[in-house]
Design a protein that fits this description.
- The protein has helices at about 5-10, 15-20, 25-45, 50-65, 75, 85-95, 95-100, 105-130, 135-160, 165, 170-190, 195-200, 205-210, 225-250, 260-280, 285, 295-305, 310-320.
- It has about 325 residues and is mostly helical.
- α9 packs across α11 (about 170-190) and α11 packs parallel to α15 (about 260-280).
- The protein is globular.
- About 45% of the residues are buried.
Length: about 325
Amino acid sequence: MQDQYNVMLRRVSRTFALSIEELRGVLREAETLAYLLFRVSDCIEDHASLPVPRKVELLHLWAEVLAGKRPPESLTSRLDDLDSEDAEVYVAQHAGMILKRVEELPEAVQDILKRRVRETSLGMARWQSHGPYVEDEAALDDYMHEVAGRVGYLLTELFAWYAPSIARIKERLMPLARESGLALQTVNIIRGVRKDYERGWVFIPQTYLAEAGLTRETFLDPHNLERAMQVIGRLANKADRHLESSLHYVTSFPRRYHRIRLASVWPFLLAVKTLAISRNNPNVLLSEAKITRAQVKEIIARTKLLGWSNHWLTWYYRALAR
């Protein structure tokens, strides 16, 4: 794996880089490139200076590039006006280079990466056209499926391609993979409430707000802090349900694939800990609640030693959740 891709990965996400770098060989390279491809989509979807119509157009264009219908330059040439000092922009501007590397992977792996990232990009385009709100929990799940559930599908397909024993349980893993994606994304929504609001998006279902006597406009009013925290509590309970499925997902991997287990366990347990410190924490609404580097290191160290044990993982999950 060339250093430039590892550097790009670490620039856009140190946390996921830790998980991916635990893998070896073609699986590590495939996940690195997959993550970078997803970040191209993320850059287009999230960039503050891009108007919605341009985001929709660029996401559709990116999907055509991934399908082989357009050359990468048709996208990257239209990103020249963005600031390359931004790590995500830099990745997006080098989409052609990333795809060239993808095309050196086995054909089956290429198909998994391009197909799943294309599906996510089209889902993001649909939601950009929809607008910066979700009507109810079903709409929230639909959005999270597009941006995170499909990521779970991609990872599981890669693991099944790599390991025959995982391929044999793939059909059982796929719905759990989606739930794992929804778990991580629900926690991300809770953690990023303030930042999302500041960029114009409210991912809290309108039904949740209405039942608490709130609206999108009044949700973050300091005078409504108590009721807003009740809404966050309801979203946290939803995250708990998804995380239970995620536990079943990570404990389904055969013990002999310890690195695959760790690469899946770390994002899961970091989300569990993040949710624990976010629950009943007003900082979620006022600024941000996040775990410390020391807590990250502790989780990684413990799971490296004992993460092979399903019994221990279940116990540790419960302990972190408290």
